[in-house]
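Inverse folding, one chain.
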């Protein structure tokens, strides 16, 4: 997609608190646990679905309209998230 820089407003994003699983090897307690994490709202549904499926995420960012979003998995893989150019309209209709 073409990278669009949208000035003067916060493009399509707030954050959502999500309960994510921290796998045992990633957890400082050495045990699997749940943690509340702020996630960019427009990709929170994807991150939530991954976590529910047992695919743990390390970090993520939607790109905030200026870049490609990414969801980093704990095993090192990275999922890229591309938004349609008319994402604002999609969001409005959601
Ligand atoms: Zn966003
Ligand atoms: Zn972000």
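Residues assigned per position:
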């Amino acid at each position: 997609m073409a990278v669009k820089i949208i000035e003067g407003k916060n493009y399509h994003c707030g954050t959502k608190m999500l309960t994510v699983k921290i796998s045992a090897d990633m957890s400082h307690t050495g045990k699997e646990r749940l943690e509340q994490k702020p996630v960019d709202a427009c990709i929170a549904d994807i991150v939530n679905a991954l976590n529910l499926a047992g695919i743990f995420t390390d970090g993520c960012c939607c790109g905030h309209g200026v870049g490609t979003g990414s969801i980093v998995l704990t095993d090192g893989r990275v999922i890229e998230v591309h938004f349609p150019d008319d994402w604002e309209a999609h969001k409005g209709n959601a």
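The longest strand covers residues 15-22. The longest helix spans residues 41-52.
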